Every structure is written in C-alpha cells, then in structure tokens.
Amino acid sequence: MSLTAFYALAAFTLVFALFAVTTANMVRAAFSLAVTFFLIAGLYLLLGSPALAAVQFMVNASAIPIMTLFIIMMTQSRRSAAPRSWQVGVGFLAAAVALVFFRSAVVHGEGRVAPVSPEALGTNLLQAALLPFEVASVLLLLAMVGAIVLARRRAG
Amino acid sequence: MSTMSLEPVRGRTDEMIVNMGPQHPATHGVLRVVLGLEGERITRAVPHIGYLHRNHEKIEEARSYPQVIAYTDRMDYVSGTQNELPFVLAVEDMLGIEVPDRAKKIRTMFFELYRLASHLVWMGTAMLDLGAISPFLYTFWDREIILGIVEKTAGARMLPNYYTFGGVRRDVHPDFFKDTADFLDHMERRMVDYEHLVLESPVVHARTIGVGVLSKERAIARGVSGPVLRASGVAYDVRKAFPYDAYPDVEFEIPTSPDGDTYARFWVRFQEMYQSIRILRQLVELTPKTGPHKGKAPARIKPPAGERYRAVENSRGELGVLVVSDGTDKPYRVKHRGAAFSNLQIVPDLFVGAKFSDSIAILSSLDPVFGEIDR
Amino acid sequence: MNPIPIPEDRHFRPRLLGYDPQKSRPWLERLVYSAYVFVFWLIVIGTYAGVPALFEALGWNAGWGFVLMRALQVVLLFLLSAVIALLLILVLRKYLGKVQERYGPMHYGPAGGIQTVFDALKLLAKEDFVPAAADVLTFRLAPAVTFVASFAMFAVVPFASGWVLADTNVGLIYLIAVSTLSAYGVLLGGVSSGNKWALIGALRAGAQMVSYEIPLALVFLTVAVWAGSLSLGRIVDAQLGLWNVLPLALSFVLYVIASLAELKHIPFDFPEAESELIAGYNVEYSGMSFAFFFLAEFVELFLLPALIVVFFFGGWHGPLFGLEPGSLAAGALESLYFTVKTAVWVWIFLWIRATLPRYRDDQLMEFAWKAMIPLALFGLVLAAYLRLIWR
Asked: Name one GO biological process term (chain C) (predicted).
C-alpha cells in the first residue's frame, strides 16, 4: 500500500513541478511550487520522518509561498516571459546532472534512509551542526536588516 | 483649489485618487470626499456636498410663517425642535411677541432633551465607525426614551413641529416632568457606562488622541462653532454669549479643552451631555407646573418689513437664521446658517497628512448631519 | 426604564395558532443550544470512538481499511465543522443581541435556532460569479485553501485521551504550518480577484496574519519547551497536576491576543472592517465561495479557543468520577469537559467582539512587532528557565 502511495505522490509531484515551470502565470506557478513541496513533505513522511515532513510543510509549503506571493504582489509581475530554447536545453541538462548525482547517492546508501525524529533533529542542530545553525541565523538576521534598510531608503 | 475633481499631479506617481462616499457606511450621511492617497496617507481632500439638497430655503419663501416652522425641523433631523428655535425667536423679535416664562422653560427643556438625543446618536455612530458595535444600540435605546417623552407631548418623535410664535403649540403632557426626571436618573446611570466604554477605552485613546488636531486660530478663522470650537480651546457658546429662552435662569458651564484633537471633541461632547442633564434637572424643579404655554401672538403672522438674525447653540454649533420680511405673510428670504456646514470647512485641513482610518475618526468627531449642511 | 408602552397590535402578527415568534423564550434558546451541543458531542464520540470500533469489529484495520477509516472520520469531522458553523453563527448573533439589549434572530426555527440554515441557503442561492479580470483557477482555489487550512487543524486536536486523528510527535509544527496556510488562502484570494482594492486588502490582511504568526509560534514553542514535547496529546497529559495557564501566564495572555489577530477578530478586524474605504480581500466573492471563507472563519473561531484549552487549560482533563480511563464513557466525559471549556473561551472571544472598537492597521502591526514578539521571546526564555529549575 505504501508503494501505491509513493507512486501517487511521485506522479503528482512531477505533474505540479512541471506545471510550475511551464505556466506563464506567476501566481499559479508559485502555487504549484507550494503544492510540489507539500507533496515532497508527503514523500518524507513515507520515508519515516514526520519531523522533516512537518518542517518541510511549515517552511516550504506555507511560509515561503506567502513570501513569494508578497513579492509578486509588490512587484506587480504577473506573467513571466516564455523561456527561450537554449534556457530549456540548460534546464534539461541540469536535470540530467542532478539525476546522475542522486542516483549515485541512492546506490551508495543502498536505498535506505534513517528516519529523523524531532529529538534527533534538535540534538543534531544544537550539537553536531551548531556552527551552521548559528551562521544560518546570523544570515537571516542580516537579510532582515538589509530588507528594512532597503525599504526605508525607498520610502524616503 | 480644484473644484469638481482632483487632477493627477505631475511627478506625484504614488498618489491614488480615490472617491469616498457618498454611499459609505462611515460618512455620516451623504458626503463625498475625493481623496488623494499616498499609500495610507492622505495628501489632498476635497469634500463634495449637496447630495441631500432639498431646496428648503427656496420652498420656505412660498410658505407662511407657521408653515416654515415645520420645514425647519427637517434640516438637522436628529435634533428635532432645536432647528425651530432660531426662526421662532427671529420672528418673535420682529413682531415683539412676549413669551411667558413657563413657555420659555418648556422650550428650553425640549431643547436640551434634543441635545441629549443628538449627542447620543453621535456617540453611537462614532463608536460604530471605530468598530465597536454595541454602544450604538445602547445610545439608541436611550434616544427611544427621549423620543417617547416627546411623542407623549408633541405627537411626533423626531420632527415634532412643536414650537410656535409665543411659546409651544400645546401644553405638556401631565407625565412630562415625572418622565423626564425618571429619564435623567436612568441617564446618569448610563453615563457611567458610556464613560467606561468610550472615554476610558484604550482603543479609543489609541484611535483618537493626537489625531486631527485643530488649532485655535484655524478654528476661529474657518468659522467653526460648537463642540469642535470648544475642543480647540475657545470658550464660545451662544447660550452664554447671546442668551435666549430660559438660559439666563439656569446654571451651567461650558466645557472646553485646550487639545483640539479628536479625543478632545469626544470629551467635550460628553461633558455637554452632563451639562444638559444638569440643566434639565434644574428646569424640572423650576418650571411652574401650571400656567400659559403660549403668549399672545397675532392670528396672522405678518412681520413688518425688515430683517432679523437670531442664532442658537445647536448640538453641532451655532445654528442661525436670517429672516427677511417684506411685510407679507410669507417670508421674503429665510437664510439658515448651518453649524455643521461651517464646521465641514475644516475637513481638508484636518484630512491632509492624516492616515485614512484617522479620517474616519475625524469625520465622526465633527458630527456632520447632512440635512443641516445641504438643506 | 420603558418608554411609552407599545400597543399589542403593533407587534409582528403571529403566524399560526397564536404563536408569537417575537416573544423571548430563554428556556427555548437554552434548549436549542443544548441540542446543538449534544449533536456536536455525539458526532465527536462517533468520530473518535464509534468509527474505530466499527472498523475494528469489521476487521478492516490495516492497509486500505485504515485509509477508509480515516477518510470516514474526516467526513464526520466535516459534518462536525458544519454543526460548529451552524451553532457558532447563531450563538454570535444571539449573544450580540443579548449584549445589545435586543433579541437576535427569532423567526426561523424555535427561538431562531435554524437561522443559520437559511443563511447558508441564501449564500448558496446567490450567483457565484467570477469577475472578468480574475484568474479563474486561483480565484476558485483560494477559499478552498483557507477552508482546508482551518479544517486541517482538526487533525491534531485531542478531544479526549487518545481521541485524536493524528497523534504525531510534531503536532505543533503542523499547527504552525497550517495557520500560515490559512493566511496563504487569504492572500491568494486577494491576488486573484483582479481588483486593486482586494489586492491591497489582502496585503494588509496577510501582513497582519503573518506578523501575528510569530508570537503565536513563539508561544507554541514555549508550551512545547514547558511540556517537553511537540505532540498535543503529550502537552495535555503533562497538565495533569497543574494547568499551564499558571506557570505560563504571560505566554497565555500573548496567545489569546495573537489568536484574536489570527482570526481577524475585533479588536484586530481591520482587514474585514466595512467602514474602512479599502474593501477586504473577499470583496469580489459571493455565494458559495464567500461561504467558504466565512465557514473557515467560524471553524477557526471554534478551533483557536480549543487550542487555548489544549495548551493552557488542561485540555480534556477533569474529574472522572471513578470511570475507567480509556473507556468509552471516560472518553465521552472527557470530551464533554473539553467542549465546555472551549465553549467558555468561545464566549470570551464573542464578548470581546461585542465590546471593543478596532485598532488601526499600523497600530496593530506596531503592537505585534514591538510589543508581542519581545514579550513572547521573554516568555520562552522564562519557561525554559523555569523548566530547568523545576524539573
């Protein structure tokens, strides 16, 4: 049964991802991207990591799409230009390279993934991966301050 | 200053020109204000009035003097008999009619009852504009009581057509003094609640303190009167400056506030309500229970040729009437000086620089009634 | 005091056999509310105890049977949210009437009890048109996103011990995700309306909801730190001896305020205010689409107080009077406690709605960023410190 679930999720992920990159309407593209990430969260759930699934849902399928919508609204960009043929070619090339990398990773790990529990995630973030965690928060702080400075300069 | 509409200004690319009203839940009637908005901030404001113009003054030129009284009621429709008084006083002056003391006191009682009724409407609608939905219903219940008292005596609630030349049309109902005394007791209890809900509410403070400040000089320059003027620090009240009816016989104060912001205007109206209650209490005691309710007036009202201006202190400010008579039984010209009409002149001054939601608070604190503005 | 008494024949003419709908019958109103709450309770019991028992008896426990069971439970929860909407809209109107010295709906049903059915019928009957400038797909999708986001909160709310749809150990993160999603639906609605004013209204509503998400999430974290788990079931269990409202008082107050802002409830209902010029995000919506936005708001009006009860007031805890914990009877009693506590909080929210005016847009944003977030952070650190020294 989980095989059916996997095939369904994977199929829909592909469909929405394709829709996200091919549609010209930015709002629809942002929405499809959000749905794609939501479905990937479902895939994480299938892999036995509800913590990762919840975080993926919270960040990529909820918060980021809101930011994207704000950006689309503020810049009033509604339609994107159709991609040129060389851009499509580069896209396919990138997809092929990524496929090769991921396949080798899957083969290397023999197709098994360790489930991640929230405790494990938390402990890892605050012990083994402490430096990247702190650097990431400083980076976010910089981004916030920068955004405020930019907005203020525009206003007057 | 542009007249009919706002033209976009070259170089001001961020400005949106937006129309507020005349159908709008918060413009207190049919006011249309064309606003230039830069984001939240108002850069220009041009009010347009006339949506309720009913040709009162022209019609009144073709009506006999007693008939005109019925028309005057309809101007500031929330204030009922207050509109009748300046016209009646002007004609009484021209004809030299004596008004008996009891009639003066009865007139003053109705005048103050309607001041309370009008301020109750103001309070309910002002709070509704700010988002509180319940005080509206409480104030209208109190207003129901007042209108019930008036109905027992005069026969009609909002527009009773009760004053006449020499006094009032009919004597008060036997229950009138008791009803009024009961109502004043009830009102004093209610005022405590209203203070809690309105004057002491932190949300109201946040929305009104420091908002829409009107300086003393500008208020005088624009011809503002009434609570708006007194909230800017000018202690001018027609009841004290040019007393009429029974006002010389009662003790009351004129509340003023030096701040000039929206909260000051709220506060001044509240204090006026307290003063009205005080005046009414004194009058309930002082009014003789028997006696004439009307002085001697000629059967045919034909004032000698000439003109006369009389003003009273309406709930909104100085309501004045200029009666020009040509010796016939119909007036040659009746010019009404609407208090709210003059008060509305400060709208562009107060709106510019304010945020949009502040404009709603400011407008509600000015308390415009369009019957009086447009006539 | 009474003004002049109204003569009897000025009443609305009673319809049949002398029954006067305009007469106030408090006992009938209480009966109607109790009936609604009783139906609500029955559906809760059916969903969380009845359906699993049924499937257990049928032997359809694993695999597709499990999926079917969950699907049936979700359908029943949808029915539950319909009952919640019916009840809450009626209670809102009647309660506002009580506060405002008037009756509220009186005509349809006993003491106005079926009024909301007619409201729903009215919304169904309205033409549900899409403006020409709107993006049809997204326009239709937005109310669905908002409603699904509100409805999805049901998955982690524990009505009684063990009575929860998804007893995950990341329930709190899921809740944060889902509340952000309802803000997303609002934004989508405004963007896709093809109307400049709806766009501005949606931007404002979205900004407000997103700004108040932060103290909301911080309070969630505070509760998680205090209880030591991200699972709502365990948070309720941890309140066996002491309800969280006492040690986490500051966070509790902040949570109530943030919930009011998430609901776009007075005093933070600026995005929905009719007396402001710029109409809200749902100005172009009518008929069933609008009904979905409306339904989402009322479902959240139930769920956010339910979450207050879960996080701060011991959830479904209450004296069991000797019933065996884990049994059906205990579950029913616990869910009743939960319902009653939630009802108290819904009443408090409605009381706030009846009383207060609304804050201005920039005032509420300033309040969120300058007052609530620092206080919420302080509350988080305080809770962590208290936990360290007390446990």
From this structure: aerobic respiration
